[in-house]
Amino acid sequence: MVPLAFVLVFFYQPLVAIFRLAFSKAFVQGLAAFKLEQVTRPLGFTVWQALLSTLLTLALGLPSAYLFSHFTFPGRKTLRLLTLLPFILPTVVTAAAFNALLGPRGLLNLGLMALFKLPSAPIHLLNSLPAILLAHVFYNTSVVIRVVSASWSRLSGRLHQAAQTLGASPWQTFKTVTLPLLMPSILSASLLVFLFNFSSFGVVLMLGGPRFATLEVEIYTQAMQMLNLPLASLLSLVQLSFTLLITLLYNRQVLPRVGKTALNLESTPLPRPRKPAEKLLAIVLIVTLVLLVAAPLLSLVARSFLTLEAARGERGDVQTGLTLRYYLELFQNRTGSLFYVPPLLAIRNSILYALVTVVLSGILGLLAAYAMQRQGGLRRVLEPVLMLPLGASAVTLGLGFLVVFNHPPFNNPRFPLLIPIAHTLVALPLVLRVLTSALRGIPESLRQAARVLGAGPLHVFWSVDLPLLLRPLLAGMVFAFTVSLGEFGASSFLSTPEMPTIPVAIYRYISQPGALNYGQALAMSTILLLVCALGTLVIERTRLPGEELF
Amino acid sequence: MLEVRNIHKTYEGKPLLNGISFTVASHELVCLLGSSGSGKSTLLRIIAGMEEPEQGSVWWNGADLAGVPTHQRGFGLMFQDYALFPHLTVAQNIAYGLKIQALPPTEIDSRVREALHTIRMEDFASRPVTELSGGEQQRVALARALAPRPRLLMLDEPLGALDHSLRVRLIEELRLLLRESKVPVIYVTHDREEAFSLADRLLLLHEGRLLQQGSPRDLFLRPANSWAAEFLGLGNRVSGQVGPEGGTVLTPWGVFACEPGSKLPGSPAILLLRPEDARVSAQATGANNTITGQVRDCVFLGEHFRLELEAEGLLLQVYSQEIIQPGSTVSAYWPAENVLLLSE
């Protein structure tokens, strides 16, 4: 009941408020109050870029899934881990990383300028569609690799042998056996990737520049800059109904079919690539993946230690050198400036929020997982109600909170709970998914065995459930921690100038001029990157064999 | 000791257990035998207190156990899938029940070592249970169930998941272990070989009722009815009619003399003709107690040959000392004292 109440108050109440806001204006002034174009233009672009991104992601992800499920090669585990990292990386860090690689002050441009003695940056990738697409591919390739390679490696080799003894050529085997069996997981990965791309906010805001606006960015612009809350609400509704549709499709149609393919019972060790074609494929894919993931992240780290004291006006003649200044600067207190964001405060806030989020989503996740375990009416209500926020975007959430909780005690800047509550709503569906699948994996006979051996109900929970749930719970909590640390969409609505979080601070630094601001943004992003890398490691280590996050 | 009184339970609207009553005395090994889906496991769970009967009660030493929760009944149960705690080692699994009894650590230590010695797995103490083979898991599950010295031990198809040759070996081990433990045991199985080699007393469960109970020998010699004879795999069943004078049965394949039963002349009857009692000869005779037919198949079983005999729509199995070519005609004769008249 507690999780239900929590979600009702903090998710559905803001949702209803958005509804009211959007329709109140429509009723008073008629639909003419909104120009149709104001909705269709961002919607069109959102769908367009999401489709493109998804296709590109599949183009890289599917061959990589083949590589991971069929071959072993040196560094396979590391590469797998490396591709997981982007998935939990905050959008601001991603944006900062691509900025550090491709931006006018990025490594690539600096390198080219130094090499060819160019007067100005030759690559203008930033603020363009390719930058957005690249970042989305960076983000989501791991989803395709994980989901598809999991079921691809479960496909029994015997099925192929059977098809071939029945006279099927390799191509026919692929068409009639492999593809149909893989289809559910490919579809599942595609929908998931599409959903993520559809509700992309930070990446588009920071890499797309003013010319490109997805629904999410448009909601933010309308609400925070144009102060047009009704239009923002309407856009939120459009956004919400689309994501809802995709989520429902995913949960009802696609997810139940995944994993029901013929299982590979014999676990033979994977071979190394042998044929020239296989070797070529492996090398091309490995290089591409490493470049895609490592290049932006490494340039982020490198760039955060690099000074660039270009004397103004003397273009091309830059003094470079190594420095710790950006990091040290994080600890300096320069309260004089109007735009000054105290970095230490942001770090402190973010950590506090993240801890609250971990506790909240841990407790609520456990309670809800147990409630959903039970048969009957409550479960039928609980499951869709709790899983729905997965489809709602963080920006919509932020907007809803802004609309509803605009009275005391919530609107007090010192009221510290609103942001972690929003973060909990963002993290809860995935925490819940991990916990419910773990809980379902505990056979009832274990609890019965404990009871027969004399354990009371509490002792059964303590000695059987809890130890078995510990690893998934830990994974879920680490996940919630990184989500909270990196969450940008809702925080950008809810954080006040005096109480920033790390991503909000990074966004502010990076959108202000000056080498120091830029450097500080990169330094903070690097710290966040480090935390997320650690988180990835923990999640991967606590993962039970054969279990996936999605 | 244990007394089960008139247990009723329905499953999805259909009666599953329909008035089950029996007792288990101390030191007794009772086998509950029935086909899968006959409600055997449900009965065990009711005794263990994990399910409530819709009617009836479970008594221990004259006290009704209704309202006593599972963990206070002091009964051991070994699960079909063993239900070993995957997060604990072999020794920790065995110690689980002892720790709940809050025994002193030294006592727990020595009891665990004793249990490991009994199942001959001393070297496995600190192994994770997930690395054990099926047979090893089975032994650890048994040790875990026995370690807290339960007042009653229940085993739910404990050999069900194992392959045949391992089963045969483990039945012998189980026999000795259970005898040594001196705990009253209820052993649930659908396998008559297991039941016959383990049980002091057999309870045959069919259609929600106890069809028959007795020693393995009783059931073997006098199965309660046609279904029991078939389920226990006792031999050929041939249907006919009780003849005008007592002690004969008329069948389409000839007249059979048998021990006189209480059945009225003219009423339908089923005869049990065991393959091992048949006397096979190459001459086709028209004598009483004889079925003549064609040999369809002849399989060497070691001690004898098994013949598949076909006689006018009837398929029979009989054992023969000699090899007989398929296609030849033989007759099989059963002496009257070996022909059993079964009830429906």
Main features:
heterodimer, A: 550 residues, mainly alpha, MetI-like fold, two-stranded antiparallel ribbon, 72% helix, globular, disordered C terminus, B: 344 residues, alpha+beta, Rossmann fold, OB fold (Dihydrolipoamide Acetyltransferase, E2P), six-stranded mixed beta sheet, five-stranded antiparallel beta sheet, 8 helices, 34% strand
Polypeptide structure, described:
The complex is a heterodimer of chains A (550) and B (344). In chain A, strands 1-2 form a two-stranded antiparallel ribbon. Chain A has one domain: Orthogonal Bundle (MetI-like fold). Chain A is mostly helical. In chain A, helix 17 (418-440) packs across helix 19 (457-486) and helix 21 (502-510) runs antiparallel to helix 22. The radius of gyration of chain A is 25 Å and the shape is globular. Chain A is built from 22 helices and two strands. Chain B has 344 residues and is an alpha+beta fold. In chain B, strand 4 and strand 5 form a beta hairpin. In chain B, helix 2 (90-100) runs parallel beside helix 4 (134-146). The interface between A and B is medium-sized, with 17 and 27 residues.
* Number of contiguous helices of chain B: 8
> Judging from the principal axes of the Cα atoms, what is the shape of chain B?
elongated
> Which two chains share the most extensive interface?
A-B, 17 and 27 residues
Low-confidence stretches of chain A: 260-266, 310-317, 545-550
Rg on CA atoms of chain A, Å: 25 Å
Count the domains of chain A. 1
Arrangement of strands in the largest sheet of chain B: 6-7-8-3-9-10
Question: What is the CATH superfamily of chain A?
Answer: MetI-like
CATH topology of the largest domain in chain B: Rossmann fold
Multimeric state: heterodimer
Helix and strand pattern of chain B: EEEHEEEHHHEHEHEEHHEEEEEEEEEE
How far apart the termini of chain B lie comes to: 34 Å
Using only CA atoms, what is the Rg of chain B?
25 Å
What is the CATH fold-level name of chain A? Answer: MetI-like fold
Q: Quick check: average pLDDT of chain A?
A: 76
Strand content of chain A: under 5%
CATH architecture of the largest domain in chain B: 3-Layer(aba) Sandwich
Main sheet record of chain B? 6 strands, mixed
Strand content of chain B: 25-35%
